[in-house]
Queue: 4 jobs
Job 1
Amino acid sequence: MLVLGIETSCDETSAALVADGRTVLSNVIANQLELHRKYGGVVPEIAARRHTELIGYVINEALDTGGKNLRDVEAVAVTAKQGLVGSLLVGVAAAKTLSYALRVPLIGVHHIEGHIFANLLSNPDIPLPHVCLTVSGGHTLLVYIRGYCQYELLGGTVDDAAGEAFDKIAKFLDLGFPGGPVIDRLATQGDRKAFNFPRPLSKAKTFYFSFSGLKTAVINAFKNQLASGEALPLEDIAASFQEAVVDVLVAKTMRAARQREVSAVSVTGGVSANRRLREMFTDTCNRGGIKVYFPDLSLCTDNAAMIAAAGHARLMRGQSDDLSLDVIPNVPLEVQHAG
Amino acid sequence: MLVLGIDTSSYANAIGVVDDGRVLADFVFETRHESLSKIMLNVDGVLKKANLGLEDIDGFGVGLGPGSWTGIRIGVTVGKIFAYCTGKPVKGISTLEVLAYGARDCQTLICPIVDAGARETIYAAFYRSGNDKVHQVGDYYVGDLPGLAEMIKEPVVLVAADVPKYRNVIGQLLKSNTIEALESAPSGVVVALLAAASLQSGEHDDTLALAPLYLKESTAKAFVNKYLKRNQAAQQG
Ligand SMILES: [Zn+2]
């Protein structure tokens, strides 16, 4: 079954073709970074405008590079939940028009479920159940995955998302936007132990995260350094900050894995491309006898292939939406308990 | 030539179908914030009432605004993807022209006005009628009402959804009674009629490039400034 996926929840305009929920035939991502960079963040009105301009082109490109035409499309999956409302509605308007014109099923997908499927697309043999950490500029979420489309929320962030903390620190240090890749790069030349930044909530028994205290600590350390008149070791600050974030993410995920007695964890979302995060997860999991899975780098950031894969799984379970499908900008991942 | 027209610039789904200038369907569904959830069901309903299928449609017309940009993005996306899926041409129509068309019987200057959402700001343009059509004279106007009043030097008919508001203000500013007022709202059937006229003469838009008629970059800049201010406040607070 050939599913056309569409993702426009934030600042990537993306369309993809995925066969049988497994094989990515195309995954076109039009990145709007250049437009938003000068504002140090995504400007919702600009994002919505750009999606409207790009949506037709990315769909056409997804079909072209996938070697298919419209008549081959058997279902349309679209991110309808979680994201910027003005951005989401462009994708959903396009998807329901395609569904109506081509007379194929329409499936609205929760953005986080898409990220979970990015990992399943890259690692089809990933064991179930397992614990999945979704980390990006918009989310930090621990989910227990009982089975396909069966989730239990374990915890999330009480303030900033992990990727958001990267963005804010990068913005404060004037390193550019988005913050993740710049800090990742800078940190490779720094000493991760130079500053002992706090690891908020890392000892707590719950699975909730908090990054705003850490952000304040980094900003204070920077200001103290500036006031002392010593050289500014930006690399050390970046490395130590990144170490603190990754430490907390790994500690919480491992705690969840042990509590749920799973043999595997997966990490997905934009921040899962971070090299130190992958390294520390791999080391810690190896020592603990737990398998760890990451998506291919091309599937870490927001993309439509993961939405097509999630939509396919929903459709195979008899779920689809009618033409009244609407966007819901802020809603938790739908939780389904087995039995 | 069967043309389907859609205008979602006013938080209504305005949908019409014409056949060579003959009106087959003309509906305005009040949708408020349900424009997205209702649009496809309303299109389907209108086509069925006209006893048509999507495959019968020879071309599409879309209201490009100005108006509610959120609403407009829905209509533009729907029209563009319809054209893409069916391989039929699409033509975007200025919502100001749609309003002006309602006053095409008037011999005076025609001035459609759309609220720009931001305080005191309006979008407007001037048209003259001739040969059962309206022709734009001069550029689009984005600004306040006094600024628009300054540009009016002759008898005029104002066309708007909330026209008494504009008539009173402009009338006072000009101290003139040479102002007519015509209440009108964006219309799918007028979009279809105007699009059909263009499509019949072989004039259409590039389907994939179809975009709303943003009259001024400053609209985006206003949003950006608001966003930057909010961000600064958040960082200081
Ligand atoms: Zn995401």
Note: The pocket of zinc ion is lined by residues A 111, 115, 136, 138, 269, 302 (CB under 6 Å).
Job 2
Amino acid sequence: MQRPGNAQLKRTKKEVGTSEKYGRVGIIVGGIFLVGVFLIVRLYFIQVVSHDKWVAIAENQHNAFQELSADRGEIYIHDGEDRYPLAVNREYQMVYASPKDVVEKDRAALELARILGLDAGVIKNKLDRPNDPFEIIKKRLNDEEIARINELGLKGIAFLPEKYRYYPAGELASQVIGFASLRENGRVGGYGIESSKDGILRGETGTVSQEKDAAGRWLPLSDRLIVSPKNGESLLLTIDRVIQYETEKILKDSVERYEADSASAIVMDPKTGNILSMASFPQFDPNNYSEEEDYSVFLNPVVSMTYEPGSVMKPIVMAMGIEEGKVSPTTEFVDTGSESVAGYVIHNSENKVYGRSTMTKVLDQSINTGVIYVEKLIGNQTFGDYFTRFGFGKKTNIGLPAELAGSIRNLENTRSNISFFTASFGQGVTTTPLQMLDAYVVFANGGKLIRPNIIDRIIHSDGREEKIQPEIVRQVLSEETSHTIGMMLRSVVVNGHGKRADVPGYQVVGKTGTAQVAKSDAKGYEDGLSIGSFVGYAPLDDPRFVVLVKLDNPKKVEWAESSAAPTFSQIMKFLLEYAKIKPTEEVPVKK
Amino acid sequence: MLGVLLVVFVIGGGYLYSVNQSAVQGYHMRTLEKEIGKLKQDNANLKIAEADLRSLYRIESVEGDLQMEKVDTAVYFEERGSVALK
């Protein structure tokens, strides 16, 4: 085997070295290429795919950002020609400590505890945190507390303004207004108008952002981006302050006098559908809502509770019969005291037998068999259709939260005569008090059903005011029928069970209803429980006010004519005098 | 040369004066803005105080002190047309 010479050996080594060199260079170049590709891909993902995310992170590091809160819209009610604030934003002062700046910590803790009624140990504990720049001592201070703390001149103790929702009228219309509570994303409406109109009351928060330095301080010369907050819209309700106050007062007196569990009353202007008063008892103070143990008091029973209305339904059935041409006020029928249907026997109240009676007398004496007679003449299908046309079984859309529709499901099966017979005197169907009132507005408003309205105007944050117009839902009865039924209801007050609802000097009309309370967990009715109600309006020739009064389970009296009717009379008397409506009838002179 | 220096001095002085005036005006504006804010807040507080005072609960609680009397019956007078006498 031939060995290579030196020269050949040198060349071979050189060739090998060159080859290795190129190999290493190739690896380095390849490596650089791969790193380059990796960087390009990475940059692509950072700058293109995840662009928004990184921009946000960078802005967070370099920009100071602060949210600017919007003022919540306020809520007003009518007060004569003026407006009265029911819900406003009130500025309170909060006292806080900057512990590192506080000198004489023991003395400061003792003095603050004495003025604020707090535990001195708790305050001292807060002041003993030198690294903590901000310690809240107490919120919502009153003027006296602020003045006394200022007198002390304590170093490191200061005040900070905070806005809270404040209800100047306290309990007035509390179930209507509800309250706004503090949540994570600001103040949010909890119940009532505060809840149902939260979207327009809340407004939109604004922002201010600016570049900051490494220490987190704002850079004065950098651009500042300000998005102004948009304050919420304010609302003017249709409620009149004096009418609301007086209705609540009369209602409260009645609850105490008749030992009722609870009560409601509504006053409406029949021409516009505007609610002038919506009162319920018991009430709550929205300034201290957290102190209430029973949350059901927050619900507005006028729209969120249904009941079987009882005999106040009878004029509605009579109006159907008159509109259909089946009966007139003088139409006679013979009452035998009971009506048998599907194995059941329906009696008149107190098992009375009235014999030959006119339709006027049917309403005067609230005869069950009389309205069953009318229902039979109308027919189940038409009867059910009228119920819908009067607005039963459907929400009124007044704009209050948790409104219920009531139930007329028992009228879906037109072969079930008993359901229609019982519905004719207000049993087996449920309504809210507001639906019942609105059905009577049809009589007071020339046969037209009107949508109840509680918001008079929306006051925009720029000062513009938007008036909410009345909305006629449909013509349910002819004007002639509504007039006829009005005359019959006047007879109820003059000759029938509604005598105690009358107001001397005025033509007041209406109907009583003493309803049984359905068991919530079984068929049948609760023993010894009843709901007394009266619905009516005045003056007959030009109705100005439609009023419903409902007393739940009054214990001192058996019938609504002795509880709801006199309560109605008190409210109506006040209304007619408050509106300066001149009497049209002779007032009997007391001897 | 002296003229140029004088012009520079006058322009510089004018500039300094205008900058100073802007700063003074800016400070004045901020003071007024703060005052407007404070007056708005005072106005809001007064409105609330007025609402508290107008509260019917409060008025009823002091009706005795205010010597107010409840009216039980409203009396309406007959309005008669005026008669022209010759």
Note: The first strand of chain A starts at residue 63 and ends at 68.
Job 3
Amino acid sequence: MRTLTKSWDDIFFQFLINSFLIILLIAVLIPLWRVFVMSVTPLHYIDTKTLGLWLDPRMWSFEAYKQLLSHPSFIRATTNSLIITLGGTTVNMLLTVPFAYALSNPDLPGRKIFITMALIPFLFNAGLIPTYLVVQKLGLVDTYWAVIMPGAIGIYNMLVMKSFFEGLPEELKEAARLDGANELQVLWHVVLPLSKPILLTVGLWYAVGHWNEFFNAILYLNDAKLQPLTILLRNILLAANINEYVEYDAFSSAPVSAFRAASVFLTMLPIILIYPRVQRYFTKGTMLGGVKQ
Amino acid sequence: MKKFLLKFLLTIAALALILSACAPAAPTEPPANQATEAPEVAAPTTPPTEPPAPTPEAPVDLEIWVSGRVTEAGPPPEDWVAYDIIKNDLNINLKVVLLPGTQADQDTKINTAAASNSLPDLFFVNRDSWFKITEAGLIANVEEVLPLMPERTKTHYSDPNRNNQVTYNGSLYGLADPGNLVQTDAMVIRQDWLDKLGLEAPKTLDDFLAVAKAFTNDDPDGNGKKDTYGLCAFLDGSGLNGAGLGPRFDFVYGAYGVAGTWNLTSKGDFGLNVRNPNYMKATEFIRTLNEEGVINPDWPTLKKDDFRVGWKQGKCGMMQENFAALSTKSNYADFDANFPDGEWVSFDPPTGPDGASSAGVTLTPARIYAVSQKAMDEGKGPAIARLLEWMATDGYMLLAFGEEGVNYKLDANGYVTTEGLADADKWTAKEAQPLTQLANMVYIFSDIELQARYPAYKAESGREMAPLDYYNAFGKQAYTNSSGAAVINPPANAADFVRFYSENIVQFVLGQKPLTEEAWAEYIAGLDSLGAKDLEASALQTLIDTGFIE
């Protein structure tokens, strides 16, 4: 059995790398921690010494979270966000996967034309007004489809996926075809099982985009019953700013900054929960998608 | 075979995209009063060739985009009693859409709708967008509908200062409703500190400095620590009209006769106040306050929330504050708990060397509603007038406070009260907020409204608090009228201009720049290099055009 011994150079290199990563970790954690501290800061407290980085846990107040979570529209808005996220990501994947798979075949007739047709709107966006007109003319205003369909296929995502598919061994697909599988069967039984990393990676990108949906929702969803969580949280924050001037609906139990920070945390929460489960695929997916074997 | 399958797959993908986009997949049924057809889109400046004139008997569909009174609450429910009244009595199918909370988001939504010629019939709009959309010919002249709503015109559209803000080519192209309350912010002082130190409220700037020093150095709260400040403030201005140090320091500039960004007294005197030598003198006085250490030292970076925590923690002796932020029940509770014997009283803004004084600038704020040209071409003008007239008369109380007996009651004096009503039904309850989302369309700041919105109460300490007493006291103080400033359009480089304007003033006050005649002249030259003279020329022309300056 061979024993690996580390040279001083290796140890020094590891030390450097780990130090850098620790510094990076701290740089990422400090703002997050500060936002959390802000979110649990009670109304009467003002920090003058710790730059908002420390608050005795005995003083923590979760009033901002309580107020946000107990809002009568919170469940409806969260449901809307989930519908948009799950529905939107499903549509995205249903359309992106076959598109990318078809274009990954070098023998596809007119492949370059299709790719060019995909790239033109990707590189030269038509802009807000034409998109609005299309959505409006299709009768999608005030439906979930208005925020799902304009970005149904992300060309960048499709190209990443196409690169991944191109990197899969052609022999595997040929073997399936020799066994009598048609292209749909090849895609379903051979390609997709081998493509979990890219599917999860691109799916995550799509899902995060839908979860954070704000601008299109403002533009296309006039009906408040359809509006997602991002809009509700934004409106609550605005109300917290404005209501200091009125008596009856003032947020008296938490400072505005706590609402702001709590809303940031609540919005991040689903992504924070999902990301660790997807992360191992995420790295692999992005790396493999960028390299053509 | 393989190629065929690939083509098939691609075709399926393309078809799926198209079919999904075309699917009429409305997840919820539109309310009965909601127009189900997408608005017809045409070139923005091209009116419909054959407007569908509604028959007199047919209900008129009206879609209005408004800014809700409470941004977090949703729109009125579908079974809102007002919808039935509007439909049965006014023959109008009303659809209410609440605009996003911020002006930027509102602008995006409205400008996009304007560019696609799909503006709603009646909509709330800020003045800058109103001006651009009016220039594009998409907003209607409303002078012909005013006679159709005489009471509304009397209560809402009879203020020339507001009407000037929606005047275009000599005609009214908008409905300028009353905006926010004015003269809500003024100077207040800790009366208990004055009493403890045997002082009187300052009358001049010299007095002010003396009292501020005493409040800072003489332990007015008696805790044995030097932890108080004579003046608490922060940078509160935004935009061109809030450039400089902002309204919290306006009382100093007012004492020198130069409060606000603009001198609007006459055509001859018009210009940026910074050109007036008194502006530099006022800045010098604030610099003295800063050097003497009588202002909270973190004022250049302090946020509003922290500023308010400061006075609630007993750090401040004097400040400019909003009456409601100071004295309404939920806002006052912390101060009351910390200092049951503490008392804030209003005092007149101190006078300057020439006897001038001002608590700050006052505008004539307007909430602008516009009627789209499309709606007018479709013959909806009379229906819009009918709706607005109803809002100002029979519908006023319903829209402002909800249903009588359910959401509010009237006391013996005719004032609104919620005594004896179920908590969740009270018009002040969070659950009831959707019912009064259109209140901003009816508010005229009458006594009954103010009494309802800012009721008197007894604090935990037993102190009788009446927020309106502060408001009334503030209203008696001297203010600088800057109503015309509302129509001055910011320059294209407004962000750079305002940043240069404000940052230099802060640097002068903090001593980061010498405050000399030469340095001031250099500062003014810098503003000129950013287009100050052009801005003044165009602003003057706008003010003359809109009648604010003769």
Note: DSSP finds 21 helices and 19 strands in chain B.
Job 4
Amino acid sequence: MLYKRPLVALTLALAAAWSAHASAGELVVSAAASLTNAFKEVAQGFEKAHAGTKVILNFGASDVLLQQIVKGAPADVFASADQKAMDKAVEEKAVKPASRVDFAANQIVLIVPADSKANITALKDLERAEVKRIAYGNPASVPVGRYTQAALQAAGLWDAVQAKSVLAQNVRQSLDYVARGEVDAGFVFATDAAIMPGKVKIAVRVPSQTPVTYPIALTTREAAAKEAESFVAYVLSPAGQAILSRYGFQKP
Amino acid sequence: MSDPVWVPLLLSLKVAGWATLLAAIAGTAAAYGLSRWRWPGRDLLDAILTLPLVLPPTVLGYYLLVLLGRRGIIGETLAGWGIELVFTWQGAVIAASVVAFPLVFKSARAAFENVDGQLENAARVLGVGEAGVFFRVTLPLAARGIAAGVLLAFARALGEFGATLMIAGNLPGRTQTLSVAIYEAVQAGDDATANMLVLVTSVTCVVVLLAAGKLVPIGAGQRNGGGR
């Protein structure tokens, strides 16, 4: 009977698929875009060590992830690429302040396309007329943009660079713009530049005004609090730290 | 109205206006060509020209980025002439016209195919040249259908987001259209600006729809036809 009515069968199948998504033992981790490659491996390692728990990863600009959590997205762990996004999370009561801990450190670098002929070797080279477009994350929502802004302001170059800015939605978009040669230079984390060694090269290691440290915290969602706690413990454990260091992250 | 609202609104109208113009000309020309000349591969071309309607905007954005980027097949040639499209408002126009094109194309093709061939032949018998037949008989008869497509195209171009973001980026004052500005305001948690922007967008769309209703009254065609 059912098979004679494909529309009914399809509706039932869709309904079943709908209800299947929220199952037990699932843990949602919202992590900064720069953690994409490293956290995929961290999640695999965690799943191997904790059979039965599935980690669902959600990557994006830290502030975007924060907005999602504040507006009720079901995330259990929040890993941010700077302290400011985590400060906001604490302010908005989106995370448990006591669970907050720094788990990694990074460095800001200025990258250029691998075949660049602009010969950029210092930040002040960005003022030159032949450097037309510079990509970095939007400081309003992307941590790497805030680090960039602070460093350029300290160097007295912010106005000159801002006039040439191409704002990216997250750090990986800046990386992609540079790798495609659509911009002349871009600011990313050292760990991002390391992903595309054939396409981009580091021109300048940028001294940061504030230490580039990554905080992680448990959200106020209780659904998977136990699993979330053990995930954070795994990130801080020697096994988790080894994975992060393999991707170029330093200890905080 | 404040700058964070006014600037993206004007930019959106400028981009959508240009995109609609391009889509209207190209869409009408392609529709006329496909409705008049029969040749193998016509159906395939029709499918390809309709593709932007069904493809995800991110796919279109990627195609455009690969074709028009500094290292793209077309982009490299254009760069040689000093023309750059990526991260410019002209790039946003290209993205919007590509997504709006099928709406004009589909409506215009249906309109051209509904034109009675006997009327065109009558004009020819009376000694009107082919160009005259097109501009004085075929086009006026198909005008209502084409206009409906053009209005839809304008609405679609005004709301274009995905492909625009990929090719034109998010440069405040230069390529940040209304929909991109809303996306950014929401991402940054700036709800006040987001509220203002969605309100302006909604009002603009209502105005466009009202204007569309005035320009192309629904049912007017039937009334004219019935009065013969």
Note: Residues 5 and 197 of chain B are 6 Å apart (CA to CA).
